[in-house]
Design a protein that fits this description.
The protein has a single domain, classed as Helix Hairpins (Orthogonal Bundle), CATH 1.10.287. It has 2 helices and 4 strands. The protein has helices at residues 10-26, 31-58; strands at residues 61-65, 68-72, 74-75, 80-81. Helix 1 packs antiparallel against helix 2. The termini are far apart. This is Exodeoxyribonuclease 7 small subunit.
């Protein structure tokens, strides 16, 4: 029985996607190869989006407030929990 190939990390998938974009932007690939690269890029994009969505679900900032734990959404742009001032 063949071993299942381990999926790439987010960083590995993103790096491969960036390389594919560079190859496609160069514009010197034969049509068939460009199409194959494009299809691979779409697959990698989906994988990266899934990994990000999964990570977003895991990122929870817990704060202790009046003896209770409160879960706040994570503000990715600021790197801080969103709090009402």
């Amino acid at each position: 029985m063949a071993a299942k190939k381990k999926s790439a990390t987010f960083e590995e998938a993103l790096e491969e996607l960036e390389q594919l974009v560079e190859r496609l932007e160069a514009g010197d690939l034969p049509l068939e190869e460009a199409l194959a690269d494009f299809e691979r890029g779409v697959k990698l994009t989906r994988e990266c989006q899934q990994k990000l969505a999964s990570a977003e679900q895991k990122v929870k900032v817990l704060m202790e407030e009046s003896g209770t734990i409160r879960e706040l959404p994570f503000d990715a742009d600021e790197g801080n929990p969103e709090e009402d001032a």
